[in-house]
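Per-record layout

source: Providencia manganoxydans
name: VOC family protein
length: 129
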Amino acid sequence: MKLKRIHHVAIIASDYALSKHFYCQILGMHLLEEHYRVESDSWKADLALDNQYQIELFSFPTPPPRLSYPEACGLRHLAFSVDDLDKWIDYLRQHDVACEAPRVDPYTQKRFTFFADPDGLPLELYSES
C-alpha cells in the first residue's frame, strides 16, 4: 500500500472572516470556491497555495473545543489521496482500524472515508478516481 500525497487540510475557524482574511490576505492563499451550507449554517472555503496545496476552511455556529471529533475548532482532519478507497478500507480493517462507511463529496462526487489515529486524530482517505 502506498499513499500518493496529502490531498487537503481542513480547519474549523472560530471566526470565519478573520481566518479567511489571515489565510488569503496574510499568507497569500487564494480562494478557489466558497459555499454557504444552509443545512449546517456554515461556510466552506477552498483555499489554494500554488494550486498544489489546499486548505478547506469551515465555520460552524458554535463549534466545541477540540476533543477528537472532526467538527471542532482547530485542525479538522488530515486527508490522504488514494487510488482505491475500498482496498484501503479493507487494509485498515485488517489492521483493526475502524473506518466510517464511505461517503460522497457533494461538490466533487468523489468518495471518502474517515478513521482515526491511535490518539483519535481524525484522518481521511479521499479517492481521486
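summary: The chain has one domain: 5-127. The domain at 5-127 is CATH 3.10.180.10 (2,3-Dihydroxybiphenyl 1,2-Dioxygenase; domain 1).
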